[in-house]
Write a structure and sequence with these properties.
Layout lengths: L3 E5 L2 E6 L2 H21 L4 E5 L6 H7 L13 E5 L1 E3 L9 H10 L19 H15 L2 E2 L2 E2 L3 E4 L24 E6 L4 E6 L1 H4 L4 E6 L5 H9 L18 E7 L10
Parallel strand pairs: 2-12, 3-4, 3-8, 8-11, 11-12
Antiparallel strand pairs: 1-2, 5-10, 6-7, 9-10
The protein binds 6-phosphogluconic acid (6PG).
6-phosphogluconic acid (6PG) binds next to loops.
Length: 255
């Protein structure tokens, strides 16, 4: 159970006392959501985030009690963004998820849809992934609709690979774009705001004191999508949840 539960800026905020409790909150949300959808006889379309923060969450999902609760064969795995590296690279978001989660649970290989980076240009990977989303993810409102979209938060307020000042922030037609991000000196492939915001459940999972300032800016700062891209995330017809440990939530105003 969360230590704290409140609402801020149209989002549900769930706070765990420490990392372990926060991981359990996020894993519990994922298990409950996937079980509910699978019980309706539907596939569960999931988009994962990358970076380091999700590591303990993926490890928890791959272990008891959660691994035994989740209907793995009903899940279809996608990614919200990827670096333009081969699947075996230590920088690959896909590799991290495969190492910690997907190699340890019975998800059919055919249900894993990585962003096809590393064997061509990032632009080619984005074009291919756009087609994959349009073919495989059911639509709502004319766009593919993920059932669950996990997102992280960068210190500079980026999320997925939507970075401050980048053209991708204004993309309204494409579902997936490639971008050379000078701030990290690398090519990235990212889902765009329209498809991210078309998800039914969007969960930011953020841990640590170092992120407290960025969390505060996103949720309570002045609206500035250009400078704080995570402020672009507002589901068209869905739920936005921030799952934070007390350190990451430490600067938030409680009613
Ligand atoms: C990526 C992620 C990115 C990440 C943030 C936070 O490809 O890096 O998708 O959006 O969530 O950069 O990264 P950490 O969790 O490593 O702090």
């Amino acid at each position: 159970m969360p230590t704290e539960r409140f609402h801020l800026a149209g989002a549900e905020i769930l706070v765990g006392a420490d990392v372990e409790e926060t991981v359990r909150i996020a894993a519990g949300q994922f298990a409950a959501l996937t079980r509910k959808i699978a019980a309706e006889g539907r596939a569960v379309n999931v988009a994962l985030s990358g970076g380091n923060t999700p590591r303990p969450l993926f490890q928890a999902l791959a272990a008891d009690p959660f691994a035994g609760l989740i209907p793995w064969d009903s899940l279809q795995f996608f990614w919200g963004d990827e670096r333009n590296v081969p699947p075996g690279s230590p920088d690959s978001n896909y590799s991290m998820a495969r190492e910690l989660l997907l190699s340890k649970v019975p998800v059919p290989q055919a249900n894993i849809h990585r962003i096809p980076t590393g064997n061509g240009t990032a632009i080619e990977a984005a074009d291919l992934y756009e087609r994959t989303l349009r073919e495989l993810v059911p639509r709502s409102g004319g766009l593919p609709r993920f059932d669950y979209n996990l997102l992280g938060l960068g210190l500079n307020g980026h999320t997925a690979s939507l970075f401050p000042g980048r053209p991708s922030l204004h993309e309204q037609q494409r579902l997936v774009v490639a971008d050379h991000v000078d701030q990290v000196n690398s090519w990235r492939v990212t889902l765009t705001p329209p498809v991210l915001n078309n998800a039914a459940q969007i969960t930011f999972f953020v841990l640590g004191e170092e992120k407290a300032d960025a969390v505060k800016k996103v949720l309570e700062g002045s609206r500035d999508h250009e400078r704080i891209p995570a402020q672009l995330i507002a589901p068209r017809d869905g739920t936005l949840t921030w799952i934070l440990d007390s350190a990451a939530a430490s600067q938030l105003t409680r009613a």
